[in-house]
């Protein structure tokens, strides 16, 4: 089988893949996102703090560098959601890196009510401290707060809002890009929340980031297709010799080519057409679905940048 140029799948693991991923040129920036970024910048002056929701499995790639300079104008709190799906030892490394950057952050599982309460307590402290600095003569700053939630599609913004509201305040959709307008939501008497559409950066810093974000479902499958992200995931778990991946699909070894692993999964899971032909489209969807539900084990894409 033809081999291609080695690709750094996780910044610290090199693997010679069976697929030329770089030819894909993955990017996604529909027109409503440019409008959404303009509206975010316009509304920043009306809020006290910005929650930037990221995916804990890709702490940098799921951020939006296009908004960094804008967010310096406001209290900025980075929320790394889906930490329950991320590799614990990598979270420790990322926490140490974020600590050095100076921007408040927290790794959470948004379904954990205790973590959600801690997140909001931290946010209120950040806002109260900022108010005291701005008006030191006021001994008891007001407690009312308006926060804005931003982030890439499918990082869990809608679920976080619903958890905070204690009701279905916004619709949760599996497909990225469903929210296309801002909406103001009353959480309680002291808290208003401005929800914004998921926005991607106009371009991705590294080509492999498109694969990471496609696998995480930040970029829709109908933009990229299921084949490349699914094959990337098989390459990724093959490079790690993942015990969970092998057990999930009852594979004896991952020391075989990606295509062969996919064929074995197709047979073992009954992804077959008439006369026993392999239904590869079905197996690609199966692998992506299992990964997104956390059934292939915890993982992280990328490692913290080294200090210059």
UniProtKB/TrEMBL annotation:
It is found in: Cytoplasm. It comes from the Bacteria. SUPFAM superfamilies: P-loop containing nucleoside triphosphate hydrolases. The keyword Cytoplasm applies. The keyword GTP-binding applies. Residues 147-211 form the G domain. Gene3D superfamilies: 1.10.1580.10, P-loop containing nucleotide triphosphate hydrolases. InterPro entries: GTP-bd (IPR006073), GTP-bd_ortho_bundle_sf (IPR023179), GTP-bd_ribosome_bgen (IPR019991), GTPase_MTG1 (IPR016478), P-loop_NTPase (IPR027417). Keywords: Cytoplasm, GTP-binding, Nucleotide-binding. It holds the Pfam family MMR_HSR1. Required for a late step of 50S ribosomal subunit assembly. Has GTPase activity. Belongs to the TRAFAC class YlqF/YawG GTPase family. MTG1 subfamily. PANTHER family: MITOCHONDRIAL RIBOSOME-ASSOCIATED GTPASE 1. This is Ribosome biogenesis GTPase A. The gene is ylqF.
């Amino acid at each position: 089988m033809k081999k291609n140029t080695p690709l750094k799948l996780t910044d610290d693991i090199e693997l010679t893949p069976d697929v030329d991923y770089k030819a894909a040129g993955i990017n996604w920036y529909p027109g409503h996102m440019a409008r959404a970024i303009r509206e975010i910048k316009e509304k920043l002056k009306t809020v006290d703090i910005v929650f930037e929701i990221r995916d804990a499995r890709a702490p940098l790639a799921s951020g939006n560098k296009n908004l960094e300079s804008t967010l310096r104008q406001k209290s900025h709190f980075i929320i790394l959601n889906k930490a329950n799906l991320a590799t614990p030892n990598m979270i420790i490394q990322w926490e140490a890196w974020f600590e050095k950057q100076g921007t408040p952050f927290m790794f959470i599982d948004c379904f954990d009510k205790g973590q959600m309460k801690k997140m909001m307590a931290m946010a209120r402290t950040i806002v109260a401290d900022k108010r005291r600095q701005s008006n030191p003569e006021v001994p008891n700053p007001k407690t009312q707060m308006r926060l804005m939630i931003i982030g890439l599609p499918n990082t869990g913004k809608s679920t976080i809002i619903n958890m905070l509201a204690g009701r279905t305040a916004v619709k949760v959709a599996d497909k990225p890009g469903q929210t296309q307008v801002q909406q103001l939501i009353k959480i309680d008497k002291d808290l208003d929340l401005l929800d914004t559409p998921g926005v991607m950066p106009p371009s991705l810093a590294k080509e492999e980031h498109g694969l990471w974000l496609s696998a995480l479902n930040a970029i829709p499958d109908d933009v990229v297709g299921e084949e490349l992200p699914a094959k990337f995931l098989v390459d990724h778990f093959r490079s790690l010799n993942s015990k969970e991946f092998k057990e999930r699909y009852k594979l004896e070894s991952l020391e075989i080519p990606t295509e062969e692993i996919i064929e074995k999964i197709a047979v073992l899971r009954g992804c077959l057409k008439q006369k026993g032909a392999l239904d590869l489209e079905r197996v690609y969807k199966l692998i992506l679905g299992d990964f997104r539900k956390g059934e292939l084990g915890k993982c992280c894409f990328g490692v913290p940048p080294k200090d210059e």
